[in-house]
Amino acid sequence: MSDKRINVGGVPVGAGAPVTVQSMTNTSTEDVEATVQQIERLAAAGCDIVRVAVPRMEAALAVGAIKERSPIPVVCDIHFDYKLALECVRMGADKIRINPGNIGDESRVREVARACMEKGVPIRIGVNGGSLEKKLLEKYGAPTPEAMVESALGHIALLNKFDFDDICVSLKASDVKTTIEAYRIMADRTGYPLHLGVTEAGTEYMGTIKSAVGIGTLLAEGIGDTIRVSLTAPPEREAEAGIAILKALGLRGGVKLVSCPSCGRCQIDLISVAQEVERGLKGCDADITVAVMGCAVNGPGEASAADFGLAGGKGEGIIFKKGKIVKKAPVASLASELLKMIQESL
Ligand code: SF4
């Protein structure tokens, strides 16, 4: 676990703070209206911190207006141009992502470090396996985990040189095993908060799986303080996937849905029932376990261990609450009866 903590616009990251979920807008940042609307959707989906790309000065100048309306902290993502970083800090960015080794002369690094220090703005060093320094690629022959860590340590040293220590680090590769190993080495060598992610993970299905394996493995080992699932999909899906990963590891509360895969013993359309229950519980932030089981063989056992549950039978099903059968209902209204009982009980 990291032993340092940064403060991203009031949201703590590191040193045992709850693991946060991040995502990134895909609107043009200078389109303030579209960007704020997307941030609002992300916040509603449970995203804790949002990042916006700042590829040009017009985008940097829009950060102030975005910040004014954003319900969650805003991180500005900058490549190469230190002037954009300075402008974003001036505009009230809550954090910037920039690699100090890529912005040229050290006097520029000093200027960025000083501006961030004055305003208490942390910097994320974001090492990406696809854009490692040439000299490291020559030394290691490929973007290996060691090469990525050496890159990050170089960027850190540059900031430390100017007494800047308000840092978090990411080491993303599109290969899951490389990503995992890079973070493990980094966690061993420094105590900076780690922003986890598998980069360019892919479309929604495969990208979610790769992210869950990469991020989930690290979190299960106690490594990582904030996460971003990277998907070729609307950003809200990234936030939802990130939250699901945290829930799977018991790192975030909320509804946990237990449902069986169904088998030849099942006599109801369990897939539809489970989907209806899942839809009905979307947005519910109660810390409860809900079981949806196909039959009474294993069904009541699982269902009764949950706070609420149902088990299918022939033409009807039973509904449980805290281990006790509460009622029977016909299949067509099984899901809605369960949802009604949950609603009444909360
Ligand atoms: Fe099959 Fe029943 Fe187990 Fe579901 S709970 S998998 S229907 S035996």
3D architecture notes:
By secondary structure, the chain is an alpha/beta fold. Helix content is 43%, strand content 19%. It has 12 helices and 15 strands. The chain has helices at 32-44, 57-69, 82-90, 106-119, 134-140, 145-161, 176-189, 204-220, 235-248, 270-281, 299-305, 334-345, and strands at residues 6-8, 11-13, 20-24, 49-53, 74-77, 95-97, 123-128, 167-172, 195-196, 226-228, 256-259, 289-293, 308-312, 316-321, 324-330. The strands form 3 sheets. The protein has an 8-stranded parallel sheet with strand order 8-7-6-5-4-3-10-9. Strands 11-12-13-14-15 form a 5-stranded mixed sheet, sandwiched between helices. A two-stranded antiparallel ribbon has the order 1-2. β1 and β2 form a beta hairpin. The longest helix is centred in the middle third of the chain and has 17 residues, at 145-161. The mean pLDDT is 94. The chain binds iron/sulfur cluster.
